[in-house]
Design goal:
The complex is a heterodimer of chains A (about 450) and B (about 325). Chain A contains ten helices and 19 strands. Chain A is of the alpha+beta class and about 450 residues long. The structure holds iron/sulfur cluster (3 copies).
């Protein structure tokens, strides 16, 4: 009966030491914070945070007013249209099916106008945009309202909707979920701010094409038909696991300059009960399109899991490619959910790296750990290439690529080791002592059994 | 030499085996397999009938069935009451197939959390500290708790899916399961030892989880297999144990009610000694550790059978051999 005990005891000791060894994580957190601060002006300043907070509150206030009487939006000049639409919680479908069908169309109209038509409300927006460390003002003005990009939500829903699901559990097996293959909808939007970009306007002069590359389809991709039936979203099914990539490219001549833009979206479609082999294949498959005139590729970390989620505070690298080859010297801009931006220039490997900032500062009671925020990457490169487009000669080409993605609050923002270990230790001590005292009491004979020796 | 004595010798060898040593090594191998097997790319699926905890993301070699079960039950009701929920049935079938092989033997020989409790008990014994027992009254009350937990484990996810409870309550049992906190430690992951302040429910659930883990550590130090007594997996096992292949049988006519088996039973199951009428003697608390068979001095009184074939039978010779060994160790 006694043979097994030595190794067991060793293992157990190791285990018991485990929780104590956990302390350094506080230090780790401090280091993380320090690193973030050391990264320079990357973290938003207090003033900026205050501004965001104020803006959010103002928006909420105006949204509430809006909810009561939609027509009253004109009385306030601040963030009236788009945020109002966002807050009044229009069903995404109705937002997508075109504003004209909407009964509240009048109130919504400026939302599209903001980005596309330069309707009233635009001047204020423009002013705000220029107030930011932009530095790329030149490239922005295309398609009527900034870069064109592919979003997984329509403009009216720009405010990150919390999605249920993984909740910090990473790759957990949960069995198959829905019936039928999952599908995805994407919206082409124009603007340099994830929340404020409206629908991209169709441009008759431009030559455009949309390609979809499926995980097990042809590497060159297949043409994805434009939205039909007055809808604004691109839709496709995702029957197999893997990365689905959509490239919406357009060419347009402006004077002597040919503008070439590629808006890219990459959707990771993995399911918990899914086929292992399929998944393994998808993880090593190429994620670039060799025919793309320009594209941004999100670099995967070596240890990245299948169910990866980018978190505030993470470092994320992107690579700019032209026809599959790295572009040096491309200007790349990162725009956060709240519109904060930072610019960098790609190195000889076409690589740039940004730290994903934290810009989600709600009142603590409203904090959602699954808050889905969007970031936008815009890359631009110019080239002195001569050629002819639609019988018109051009002497320079301006390439622009966009890629949008999501990020979530960092667990470090809402989880505490100190409290966890503190409570654990307290209970162990308390219960341990209680058991000890109880058992000691039971060692003494019961009162009835004791003799009074006097 | 004919085949029969050959078989007989094999049987004798099995019956006279140094059972505790065998079980220790079996448990150790199973522990390493299910806590570190993931590093060797072993993946036995997500229907395992014991606590191979899914939160041990790096090392696990398969996932405890309670996790996917709670997730599946926690779906939105529109999905839950659709054809998609066929996967709940197929999932349960997979679980039942695993379970049928070893019956509750998964608890006595394989479950990493059960093994850990045995190791904590071994440490206590080494330190010369005596163990605690429940009184019969306490036993009768406490033994019901696991069924209550099982019911909650099913009802709370349904409530979450129906929108009655917060998503931060899902998966409810995992949030209070000590395995979620303890097993990842073995692969150096301490992230479960945190309080989640993102919502009130999350604070309560994570604090509850840590409290249960603290109780687990103290409890299993003074009480053998402290947690197994409350384990909803064990309750689920018992509900479907009829068709299982591994069985614990008793021949009451050979039993002298000496009480040896009761004395060694980690789960304090009195029936194992007192009940001389039931042949299928496995109770809801039993972990099928077979220590009772090893300690029984009456030939043929207790035996473990697999698909009807006796694989480990109590014998006088085996008893004497094991006891002598124990004595020599005492020297
Ligand atoms: S937490 Fe417990 S019940 Fe949940 S998967 Fe882990 S071992 Fe199973
Ligand atoms: S009863 Fe004990 S051994 Fe069995 S699954 Fe539960 S914790 Fe593991
Ligand atoms: S009755 Fe026997 S097999 Fe069951 S737990 Fe007790 S000693 Fe183990």
């Amino acid at each position: 009966m006694k043979i097994p005990n030595r190794p067991a005891a060793l293992l157990l000791l190791l285990m018991l030491c485990g929780p104590l060894g956990a302390e350094p994580t506080e230090a780790q957190k401090a280091e993380w914070r320090a690193r973030r601060e050391a990264a320079g002006g990357e973290a938003p300043s207090e003033a900026q945070r205050a501004e965001w907070r104020a803006r959010r509150e103002a928006r909420e206030a105006s949204a509430n007013a809006e909810g009561a009487k939609p027509a009253a939006s004109a009385h306030e000049g601040h963030g009236q249209a788009a945020p109002a639409a966002a807050k009044s919680k229009k069903a995404p479908a109705s937002a997508a099916s075109g504003m004209a069908h909407d009964h509240a169309g009048a109130a919504n109209r400026p939302a599209t106008g903001v980005a596309v038509d330069k309707a009233p409300g635009k001047p204020e927006d423009a002013a705000r945009a220029s107030g930011r460390p932009a530095g790329m003002g030149g490239m922005a003005m295309r398609g009527g309202g900034g870069a064109v990009w592919l979003s997984d939500s329509p403009p009216a829903r720009g405010d990150g909707a919390a999605r249920g699901g993984m909740g910090g559990m990473g790759g957990m097996a949960m069995g198959g979920e829905r019936s039928g293959p999952p599908s995805k909808r994407l919206w082409l939007r124009a603007g340099n701010d994830p929340q404020k970009s409206g629908f991209a306007r169709e441009d008759a002069e431009a030559e455009s094409q949309t390609l979809l590359v499926r995980p097990q389809g042809v590497l060159e991709g297949e043409v994805l038909p434009p939205p039909a039936d007055g809808k604004k979203n691109l839709a496709f099914e995702m029957p197999v696991q893997g990365y689905y990539r959509v490239y919406a490219s357009s060419r347009k001549l402006q004077g002597e300059t040919l503008n070439v833009s590629v808006a890219k979206a990459e959707i990771a479609n993995f399911s918990h009960g899914g086929d292992e082999e399929e998944r393994a294949k998808a993880l090593v498959a190429p994620r670039i399109l060799e025919s793309a005139p320009i594209e941004i590729v999100r670099e995967k970390a070596a240890d990245e899991k299948t169910f990866f989620q980018l978190k505030s505070g993470d470092e994320q690298a992107f690579v700019v490619l032209q026809k599959g080859l790295p572009v040096q010297g491309a200007r790349v801009r990162f725009v956060s959910h709240e519109g904060w931006s930072k610019e960098a220039v790609s190195d000889e490997q076409g690589r740039v790296s940004f730290q994903i900032i934290r810009d989600y500062f709600p009142a603590w009671d409203d904090f959602k750990k699954r808050f889905k925020a969007s970031y936008l990457i815009i890359a631009e490169a110019n080239a002195a290439e001569k050629g002819v487009f639609k019988d018109q000669p051009y002497s320079t080409v301006r390439y622009q690529a966009t890629l949008a993605g999501n990020y979530y609050p960092s667990p470090d923002d809402y989880r505490s080791y100190a409290w966890g270990l503190g409570i654990g230790l307290l209970i162990v001590l308390f219960c341990g002592t209680a058991v000890y005292l109880y058992r000691r009491r039971r060692l003494k004979p019961f009162q009835e059994v004791r003799f009074d020796e006097r | 030499m004919s085949a029969k004595p050959m078989l007989q010798r094999l049987r004798d060898a099995a019956n006279e085996v140094d059972f505790n040593r065998f079980r220790f090594w079996f448990q150790l191998v199973a522990f390493v397999l299910f806590v570190y097997g993931g590093y060797l790319a072993i993946d036995l699926g997500s229907k395992l009938p014991f606590f191979s905890c899914g939160y041990n993301q790096e090392g696990r070699a398969g996932v405890c069935y309670l996790l996917p079960l709670q997730h599946q039950l926690g779906r939105n009701w529109a999905v839950l009451f659709s054809i998609a929920s066929l996967s709940i049935l197929t999932g349960f079938l997979g679980f039942a197939l695993w379970f049928i092989v070893l019956n509750k033997g998964w608890c006595g020989f394989v479950c990493p959390l059960g093994t850990l409790q045995d190791w904590i008990s071994a440490l206590r014994r080494r330190l010369g500290i005596r163990f605690s027992n429940y009184t019969h009254g306490q036993f009768a009350q406490l033994t019901k708790i696991k069924f209550v937990l099982l019911a909650l484990l099913i009802l709370i996810p349904l409530g979450v899916g129906g929108g009655f409870f917060s998503h931060d309550m899902s998966p409810p049992f995992c949030l209070i399961c000590p395995a979620r906190m303890i097993l990842p430690i073995f692969t150096g992951d301490l992230s479960q030892f945190t309080i989640d302040f993102s919502s009130k429910t999350a604070v309560v659930m994570t604090a509850l989880g840590i409290s249960v883990t603290a109780l687990f550590l103290v409890g299993s130090f003074v009480k053998k297999r402290f947690f197994c007594f409350f384990c909803p997996m064990s309750a689920l096992h018992y509900l479907i144990s009829k068709p299982a292949l591994l069985k614990l049988k008793k021949d009451g006519s050979k039993c002298t009610r000496c009480g040896d088996c009761y004395a060694v039973c980690d789960m304090e199951i009195k029936e194992i000694a007192d009940d001389v009428t039931t042949t299928n003697i496995m109770t809801d608390d039993c972990t099928l550790c077979l220590k009772c068979v090893a300690s029984c001095p009456e030939t043929g009184a207790l035996k473990a059978t697999f698909a009807g074939i006796p694989i480990f039978v109590s014998t006088e010779a085996g008893f004497i051999k094991r006891m002598n060994k124990g004595c020599q160790h005492g020297k």
